[in-house]
Amino acid sequence: MTQVLAKPVESKAPASPAERTARRRAVLEWVGIHSLGVAAALFFTLPFVFVFLTSLMSGSQALSRDLVPRTWEWGNYAAVFDTPGFLTWWRNTLLYAGAGTVLTVVSSIPVAYALAKFRFRGRDLSLMLVISMMMLPPQVVVIPMYLFWAKQLDLSGTLWPLIIPMAFGDAFSIFLLRQFLTTIPNEYLDAARVDGCGDLRTLLRVVLPMAKPGIAAVALFQFFYAWNDYFGPQIYASENPGAWTLSYGLESFKGAHHTDWNLTMAATVLVMAPVILVFFFAQKAFVEGVTLTGVKG
């Protein structure tokens, strides 16, 4: 009979103290990093969860210490929509945020393109003026601006004093776009000019398709600013309830329902939901655009 010789099993050498220390350190680092991530996620998420759960409580339970609704009162959202003027606030906010975002992006792109790619006398001075405008608080010029729009043009009680200036560019949007456009190699622009494209056609056919992440970041910043703006509507539209936005109308809603915390939280959820959804679907372009703006100065 043929004898099968068993292959001796090689015993694994025990890990050295240095290897055990390195493994222990790697495990502790993994636990520490992920614990901090989970803690940060809970820190930012729990307030939204609390607002959402409170919005689904009854009026009596919302004033108690309960954290979870006994009965899910989805009718609170219907009650908020039935509030006189709430749909008007939605329409005004969409007009303000949508039109303001489009006008800001359209007016800021040519200026940022010129500052990033054109060589002309006074370019650095123009860039410094744009940066200085970013440092100027809006409260400094609110009185002369109000006198101009309200007294000279008689546009008080409307949102047009907030929308029309966006057609002339925004300092922060111009600077952010300029920083992004500097990352686009000049060779693409030179190749387009060799093919016979002028400056405008080069901007439309070459630069804009490559600048989509930066444009998306600027558009989101402007949309969020207009959607959450409380100071501007308070100055120009407070005297006309038909021109109120959600941010300003929500303040009056809280005053009228200061004891109905469930309805107040439901209105808050309806105001926050569009911003969260927009950022959720556009976060990739937003993060990419913000990241690339700092690659090249």
Automatic annotation (TrEMBL):
Residues 90-282 form the ABC transmembrane type-1 domain. Pfam families: BPD_transp_1. It is a multi-pass membrane protein. CDD domains: TM_PBP2. The chain crosses the membrane at residues 30-53, 94-115, 127-147, 159-181, 202-225, 261-282. It is found in: Cell membrane. Its main location: membrane. Keywords: Cell membrane, Membrane, Transmembrane, Transmembrane helix, Transport. This is Sugar ABC transporter permease. It comes from Streptomyces resistomycificus. The lineage of its organism: Bacteria, Bacillati, Actinomycetota, Actinomycetes, Kitasatosporales.
